[in-house]
Amino acid sequence: MDWGIKNRLSKLIQPDGHCFFMPIDHGYFQGPTRCLEKPAQTIKPLLAYCDALFVTRGVLRSAIEPVNSKPIILRVSGGTSMVGKDLANEEITTSIEEIIRLNVAAVGVSIFVGSDYEKQTLLNLARLVNQCENYGIPVMAVTAVGKELEKRDARYLALSCRIAAELGARVVKTYWCEKDFDKVVAGCPVPVVIAGGPKCESEVDVFKFVYDGIEKGAIGINLGRNVWQSAHPEAVAAALQAIVHGKANLKKAESIFNETKNK
Fold it and tell me: Which CATH architecture has domain 3-200?
């Protein structure tokens, strides 16, 4: 692994081998997502808890302070929306020159395995890896499922993660599944981080799947809506940080959540 890749990954994955990424890129296909209408305002109290932000270039420029910022994972795929026919019909939206100009720690691209646009999105990933490796920039693949949430079982996720790794992704973001998530991680030769998915019914439900995923081999999380759409986002972030970096169990995480919420 070249020095540049190692250096950038070290900014994202902390010395304990774990990471807490916070995505605020939802507007690229959802528009002004609830609680993310003003991204700068939303993330300000949460920055102390996360290790990096996953964001589009538009929000990066308009809402993220360039001085002493958190490391940035730049969302570079898109071209679809919630009102369009198929969320899988994505292409690369950002040039390598722009990626370098923004001095990001990594880039992120979605792949839609099993969709009508499977080949297109997999080649998006492959071409991005070809370009970014030349400049020491790691690529994170996101195993997206569009609106078809029923696809989130271990067999599908293991297939998607392994393909992403085979095509050169340095990190894979994927969904947690209740059964056989350890097999998803074991079948992927690069680090796996857990995606948040739809908002959970309670904060405790979030802590449960994150704790289980970390126990089964994921190195960290990439959670957005289950943090900043909570009624107590800072308390959720504090509890998640404790699970990811502090080896907190569920009881401890819930205690941290309640203590932070009541401050």
Answer: Alpha-Beta Barrel (3.20)
